[in-house]
What does this fold into?
Amino acid sequence: MSAQNLSAPAQNASADSGWPPLAPGTLYLVATPIGNLEDITLRALRTLRECDVVAAEDTRRTGRLLKHFAIVKPLLSCFRFNEAQRCGEIIERLQRGEKVALTTDAGSPGISDPGERVVQAVIAAGLRVEPVPGPCALVAALTASGLPATEFHFIGFLPHKSGPRRRELERLRHTSGTLVFYESPYRIGKLLAELNGVFPACQVVLARELTKKYEEYLRGTPAELLALLRQRSLKGEFVVLLSGEGRPAMEPDMDSDFCGPGD
Ligand code: SAM
It folds into this structure.
């Protein structure tokens, strides 16, 4: 997909669509692709083109995205460790009437990514925040998993240390609905082993490399997926989904080691 293919319609979007220009003094939360550049929306492109500055989790990465779509824009870094300080500067810019776009490396800002602090500070300052919705690994994985989406809980990343991870999983034994985790490829085996300990009878879906060339969905119990992991190495990015079936809601005082009909 060339930059021209995708950027041409967006170049004219503002003029042709009749949509009003961006509102001065507004923070726009712009979702960006999680793998496939075709997933950028026309509105995201117009917002990135018409804003005054882009506050980016990684300026090099967003710079490459902008370059691909032939957009030239000043970039401001805004990542986990400087987000708190950046709030002041972003608020000053908005108060001067600037239009600020916020992007992260991939997907929707604020979802296991920077954004929440800036959004809270901007709201507290009485200024306007608008989402520019688009790709999000959580939604993509959930909708294609085949697991119920009527009730789901987004857990995101578990803590790194084993004790807190185990405690968090134990706490989730009493939560109904589909559970959705983000996990690094380096810890996917560890997570499956932990799920096998706490939820051995539950179905798991590994949604791998969403929207990319090697996208796939692997389904089974934690033990079945661990066996698969021993046969082939699984690389790339993962969303891990755990079915609520076989994990009946229990009262916390009915504590038992495992969930599932056989337990
Ligand atoms: N804000 C992003 C979103 O809206 O999904 C999530 C950012 S979080 C730092 C990155 C995690 O999201 C990865 O470790 C993985 O769990 C998940 N993820 C992101 N892109 C993915 C993809 N293409 N396929 C599978 N999982 C993905």
User: Anything to note?
Assistant: The pocket of S-adenosylmethionine is lined by residues 34-35, 104, 106-108, 111-113, 136-138, 182-184, 207, 209-212, 237-239 (CB under 6 Å). Residues 1-13, 254-263 have pLDDT under 50 and may be disordered.
